[in-house]
Amino acid sequence: xxxxxxxxxxxxxxxxxxxxxxxxxxxxxxxxxxxxxxxxxxxxxxxxxxxxxxxxxxxxxxxxxxxxxxxxxxxxxxxxxxxxxxxxxxxxxxxxxxxxxxxxxxxxxxxxxxxxxxxxxxxxxxxxxxxxxxxxxxxxxxxxxxxxxxxxxxxxxxxxxxxxxxxxxxxxxxxxxxxxxxxxxxxxxxxxxxxxxxxxxxxxxxxxxxxxxxxxxxxxxxxxxxxxxxxxxxxxxxxxxxxxxxxxxxxxxxxxxxxxxxxxxxxxxxxxxxxxxxxxxxxxxxxxxxxxxxxxxxxxxxxxxxxxxxxxxxxxxxxxxxxxxxxxxxxxxxxxxxxxxxxxxxxxxxxxxxxxxxxxxxxxxxxxxxxxxxxxxxxxxxxxxxxxxxxxxxxxxxxxxxxxxx
Amino acid sequence: xxxxxxxxxxxxxxxxxxxxxxxxxxxxxxxxxxxxxxxxxxxxxxxxxxxxxxxxxxxxxxxxxxxxxxxxxxxxxxxxxxxxxxxxxxxxxxxxxxxxxxxxxxxxxxxxxxxxxxxxxxxxxxxxxxxxxxxxxxxxxxxxxxxxxxxxxxxxxxxxxxxxxxxxxxxxxxxxxxxxxxxxxxxxxxxxxxxxxxxxxxxxxxxxxxxxxxxxxxxxxxxxxxxxxxxxxxxxxxxxxxxxxxxxxxxxxxxxxxxxxxxxxxxxxxxxxxxxxxxxxxxxxxxxxxxxxxxxxxxxxxxxxxxxxxxxxxxxxxxxxxxxxxxxxxxxxxxxxxxxxxxxxxxxxxxxxxxxxxxxxxxxxxxxxxxxxxxxxxxxxxxxxxxxxxxxxxxxxxxxxxxxxxxxxxxxxxxxxxxxxxxxxxxxxxxxxxxxxxxxxxxxxxxxxxxxxxxxxxxxxxxxxxxxxxxxxxxxxxxxxxxxxxxxxxxxxxxxxxxxxxxxxxxxxxxxxxxxxxxxxxxxxxxxxxxxxxxxxxxxxxxxxxxxxxxxxxxxxxxxxxxxxxxxxxxxxxxxxxxxxxxxxxxxxxxxxxxxxxxxxxxxxxxxxxxxxxxxxxxxxxxxxxxxxxxxxxxxxxxxxxxxxxxxxxxxxxxxxxxxxxxxxxxxxxxxxxxxxxxxxxxxxxxxxxxxxxxxxxxxxxxx
Lengths: 406, 704
Hints:
Largest interface: A-B, 38 and 38 residues
Number of helices of chain A: 15
Strand content of chain A: 15-25%
Shape of chain A: globular
Oligomer: heterodimer
Structural class of chain A: alpha+beta
C-alpha cells in the first residue's frame, strides 16, 4: 500500500480534493474537528498546533502518524508551516527542510534571504520600540533625500509571522508612529514602501523546478482579484517566471507550493514583497481550478511528495503553452460595521453575463429561538466568469463601491 | 434574471453538492442556498424549486439541520423562522416545500402521511395568516420585502395543492380553542374571524349557518363572528356603534330586553364582545334588571349589582367604549366573582378613572393600543378585564412568566393590592417592594429579563406593571444568587406574598450541580399535593412551581414559571365532546410536529401513563398559548379535561415529571413513606429520559 500524505490544518475543500485524488491521506488538526472527521470517516490525528513542549512536538506527532504510514506533510495554514517542515525533515532525513520552513515564518529572515538570493527588496530592519521605528524612518528619509517640508517617507510595519495583511500598519509620518502603534506591536519588521503594482503568484514546485505558475491580478488587495491577469501583467510572464525560479533556488525550495507577493514597477522591475508556504486566500485555488481545470489542492499534495513521478506531474498540469479562454474573478463582500438588516444584490449584477454565482446569504433579521438557532454567513463572495480580463477588472472595480448589505 | 438562468445556476450548484462527498456539504451548501434564494423570489421560481425537491433532499441540503426529520417539526415555529429570513428562513422554505410534496403525494415518508402533511400546512397557514394571505396591512410592515415575496410565492404554491376548506376547519378549531381559554387580549381570535369573513365569506347571518350545506366549521365561525360583528338583528343592521346607540334610543322595552339577552348570551357563549355591546350597557346603565341580562350575570353577580349599582354605572360610563368592548366581559366576571364586596377594590376602582398618569406610563399605553381613547380609560378597562379573568393573562412575547404569574395570583387573591400597585405605578412610574431587610425601588434598578422593550401585544395593566415587576424580580434573584439553594426559595414568597408557603424543594442541587435526591423530591410532592396521599385536601392558594420545558422530542429547552392551581380527579363524561376534538386536532395538526414513532415507543417505556384514577394537575401557564407539546406524549390541554377557562392541565404524574421546584407547607404533609415506590419510579423514569439527560444525577440521600 502506498504511503499517506498528512494534511496539516482543517480544510474541507482540501480533504474533498484529497479524497478524490484517491491516494491515502490523513488529516492533522485541532481536537475540535475530530467528531466531524469521525462522523465522515476522515482519517484523523488530533493535534494542538499552538503547543510545543517535550510531550507535544514533531517527534510525538510523527509517532502518532506512524499507524497511517504518513511520509509527506502538507501545510494548509500559516501556523502549520513549521510543523510540516519538522515532519518533512524526519521523513526525508534532512534537518534543513525544517530550518528552511522558518524562512516563511519570520519576515525578517525571509527578507534577508531574499536579499542574499539577489532579489530586489526594500530597506528593512527589525525593531523593538517606537524609537527604533523613528530612527528607521529618519534613515530612509535621509537616503531618499527628503528636504524639510517634504514630509516623511512611507514605512510599513509587519509582525514577523502573521498571515497576509494581519497586523500590517502603513506609517505615513512620524505622527502615525505614535497614533497607530502600541507596545504589543513589537518586535516586528519595518520596511520602506515599495512602489509599483502589487500582484501574487502561486507556483507548484517539484524537485526544485516550477511545474506550474499562476499569476493573479489584484484589483484591491483583500477584496478582489482575478485569474489570469490582464494583458499588461500577462506580458511580463517570462520576467516573473525568471524571478520566481530565482526565489525557489535562493530559498532552496524542493517540493510544494509557494505564494509570494511582488511589486511591478513602471520600468519593469520586480520587487519582492513576501512569500507564504500555504494555501493562498482570496479564493485563488477556486479560481485556478475554474480557469486551468485542475485541482490546486491535488497539485499541492502531488508536488509536496518527492515520490510523485515526472510522468504524474506531466500528466497532471496543463501544458506550458496552455492559453486559457476563461477569466475568473471574485469580489469579497464585507458588511458595513454595525447592524446588518438585509441583503440587496443589484439586479444588474445578476443580469450581467459575467455573473456566475455568489455565497452572500441574507442576514437573519431576528433572533430565532429554541433549537432552531442558526446563523448564515454575514459576508461572502461574488464570483464572476467571462473571457475579457479588462471587462472583468471594470466590473470588480465598479462593484467594490456597492453596498451589498444595508 | 430569467427563470432559465436561475434554474441553470441552481442545477449547477445542486449538482456540485450532490456529487460531493458528505463531508464537503458545508463547502458547497452556500452556493446552493443563494441560488435557491434567487428561485424563491417569485411564483415560477418557487415552482421550479418545488419540481426539484426530490433532488434537493437527495443532496442532503437539510441533513444535520433542525429540519432533517419532517415528523419532528412543529407548525407553530414555522412563521417565526420564515420571518427571520437568512439561512434559517431559506431552509424553512425548503422544508415547507418538502411538506407540500408529502401532502400532495409526490413524496412519501414512512413517518408522515399525506393527511398529516396537509394538516401541518393548514395549521401553518392559520398560524401565519399575515404571511399566507397578505393584505398589505399592519403586521406585515416589519417583514423585509424579500421575506414577504418568498412567503407569498410559497403559500400561493401550497394553496394550489392544499384545499382551502381544510384551512377553514383549522381556523374554526383555532378560534374555538383560543376562546375556550378566555384570554384578556382577543386580537388573535378577532384577526382569524375577520379573515374567515373576508376570505371564506363566512357571514353572521344565522340562516346561512343553519343550512344543510353548513359544516361544523361554518357554524363555529359564524357564531364567533356574530359575537364580534353583531349578535342580534339590530346590532347587525347597525354595525357602527354610534348608529347602534341611536337605534337603541328608538327601541322599546321589549326590544331592549331582547338585545340585552342576545348580547349577554353571545358573550357568555363565546367570550367575545361586540363593539355595539358597550353602547347597550351605557344605554341601560341605570336599569339594573336590563344590565344583569346584558352582562349575563349569575345570582351572585345580580346581588353585587344591586348592592353597588351606582359604582357599576359609573364604571360603565368611564371604562366601556367601543374600543374597550372586551372589558364588558371583565366587568361581568368582576360582578359574578363578588369582587366589589371588597372595600379596597371599590376604593381603587373609584379612584382609577380620575387618575393622572405619569407621562411615561401615558405614552407606553398610548403606543400599545390602536385607539384614540385616553390611556387612563384603557387602563381602567383592562384592569376590569384582569380582575374578572385572572387566568386570561398572557406574558405575550416577553420572557416575563414570573410577572404574569404574579398578576394572576394577586388578581385572584389580593385584587386590592393589585389595583394599589397599578395606581402607584401609573402615577409615579416606580414600584417599591421589600426583599428581606432591603427596599427595592424599580426606578433605579437595571433592566430585567425583558430588556425594557414594551411588548405591544400585552394588556394595559401588564404594560404598566410588568417592566417594574420584572426589574424587581431580577434584582431579588441577583441578591439570592450564590446561596446554597435555588434563589426562588426566598424570592417567590417575597415577590408574591405570604400566600406562598415557606417549604421549598428543588430537584437541582446548586452545590453539586446535579439532580439530587430526586425520589424524595417526588415523594414530597405527592405527600403535599396528591389528595390520595396528603390527607385529601385541596390547595388553598396557587403555588408557584418551576418547570423544565421540553421540546416535542423530549429534550430540554429551558425553564418556565407556572402556577399550580389545583389537583383534581377528572372523569371523562358525555359533556366532554371537546375532549375528542382535542385528540383529533393533535392527531392531525400536531401529528407531523409530534413525537416520532420511535419517540412514541420511548414514551411507552418512559413516560407515566395518565393516572388510572384520572388525577390531574390544573395550572396557569402564562405563555401566549397554553396548548403545547412537551414530547413523549406530554401535551398540556386547555379544555376537555375539566379545565376552567384559562387553565392548562396534565395528568398528575406527567406534570410532576417536568417539575424542578415547588413550594409546600412542611407542617401539612402526608406520610412520605405511604407514597408507593412504584409511583415514584414511574415519574423518575420519565424525568430521566427527557430533560434529565441534560443533567448529572446523584443518588445521595439528603435530609428531607
